[in-house]
Records
---
Amino acid sequence: MLITLCFLMCLPAIGQRKKQAEKFPMYYVVDENGDTTFVDSLDPVWCFPKGTRLKKGDWRKQYKMVYNFNKVYPYAIAGRKMMRQVDSVIAADVTKRSQRNAYTHDVMIELFTIFAGDIKKMSISQGVMLMRLVDRECGIPPFEIIKQYRSSFSANFWQLIARMFGQNLKKRYDPQGEDAKLEELVGIWNKGHWDSFYYAVFFDHPTKTVIKRDYLQSTVASREDKRKRKEEEANLMRQGLKEAKEMLKED
């Protein structure tokens, strides 16, 4: 009775092993020389690339920084290219201060048209990172860019908006200090290792940021309406201030 009971208790396990054997049978092949080779099936195995491992730690712990960098750095690169285009046009075609003001105003309106929709979708941390990277790529902080190409009034206005979010447009990029991690990510990008590095962090391919265009269509016009330009710029400032207040209320 005891032996029978033990046998009955083992039946489920025997049946399970039999089903597994039927699912993954081992069989053999006899070749022309009479040698027998046993063949079995193995479960599939996922293999991931090693990727880039930096000396100062595991980047998976800072995945948010990697994700944000992947999204915003292409905008900084596009900004550098556009800034060079603006400098080239001013050097070649601008002879009067009024022409410079009219041209940079048109550039500002065009930049809003190209990038406003994308930038509005960014988080505050992504916007802050973009400012740091713009400083790195262009060589001057955002405050000085606005002051140089527009006016001190415009620069101080946007500095006020930044201050409302606890940021500072005058702060310089520090590759050896506070921005050392960003500098490491830039180095990986420039070496062409970004895709494998991103995959090693997320086990997924990076989503590519699509820039509508990285060149400007604005030119130096012969005649401009100063009143209209100032009115448009004032409307942009009012809209920016309104949206900033709304975002602060939501937070």
---
Amino acid sequence: MAKQIFINLPVSDLQKSMDFYAGIGFTNNPQFSDDSGKCMVWSDSIFVMILNHEKFGSFITKPIANANTQIAGIYSLSMDSLEEVNSFMENGLKSGGKEPSEMKDYGFMQQRTLEDPDGHTWEVFYMDLSKFPTPPENA
């Protein structure tokens, strides 16, 4: 079996969150979805489980953080071009997301940040390694 990643996120409104993730290009896998959680698929190896608070709470022993006021993690997705980054962001903003900061340009990488309706932070970026700075010869 191929290695996969499942990111589990608590959400306050399952349908609103499902609409948001569908709006930025995720698809729903009904096999792993029910009334308390939805499996949203980014690729063959990346899945986001959006779970209502009751379902998410059944897996944890600590309180659920309020991602609108605290950061518990940053989830990053690479894109194939800056145009794809910008399109992803436009779709995310149209789907109820927020952009909390301006684009960052590191020369070899451009990055934008999108928060979902519950404040979970996603960074989308395009990286051109041919522009990555080379270390000095004596480093």
---
Amino acid sequence: MIDLTYGGKSPLTINNPVLLASGVAGFDGGPYADLLDLSKLGGIVTNPLTWRPRRAAQGPRVVPLPAGALIHTGLPNPGVRRAVKLYRARWSRSLAPIIAHVVATTPEDVASCVAELERCEAVVAVELGLHDQATAYDVELVLRSAQAATLLPLLVRLPLYGALELAPAAQDAGAGALVVAAPPRGTVRDPLSGQLAGGRIYGPWLKAQALRAVGQVARAVTLPVIGSGGIHSPDDARDFLEAGAVAVQVDTLLWTWPHAVEIIARNLGGLEMTRAAGALADEWEPGMGETMWKRRQWDKPHRPYDVRPLRPPDDLPE
């Protein structure tokens, strides 16, 4: 068992240190239920929720980059009240704990959102997503508002380039855990429309910056730290744990290679066999059965954002 949060009336513990980050698995992870075993995960963070409904962004939403992608969705959601009505039953049947992500717009809206989620027994915690220009004072206001409306554990997702500055403020204001970090923003030209597009940028390149931020924050606070950014292999995830994180959130790897997320969860969760000394190469590999093919995929360079999903050969034994 892993203590994902500290403090509060009911600190959150999970069975596996691998979670799905907000924005990649929908509101309940349902679209991926046939692509990986969700029960092997430590939790699913929902798509971002706001007090009022929001529509999808106009213009380019996904722009490929040489080593990743820029994504701008506009945070579409039906509003927290409607979302609870739509997904309460699915959340209660979820194979992994559900953590609701609330966009920290205003203290009043955050309090209203959290109060609505407090009444939903299927939600085990709330993650508050700060905007990139948030100050220490903003963190305090948002957390105090949320604490007044719920006894659920509160995670705070910090912006990458402000993580070290804001982490002590979040700890002092009563956060239960810190997520380091939200992907940074960027601007690129969309090759299809020719327009300049802004959004958050994802990719393996982000790992080095996120890993540094995790190490800095873990040394600056006593709260549990959850690492996020650029995780595309078990070794990537283990690097975050070595840097001081207690768990990790995997993001867009889920879109390009869903089963790889399960491989990471099995690896970090101790669900794989250990290799006996002197064993032959085909006697043990992570995942068992399909793993010789998978191991080759980890070892050779590939484009993680290729639209064509990687699949094992048809003649590979189960």
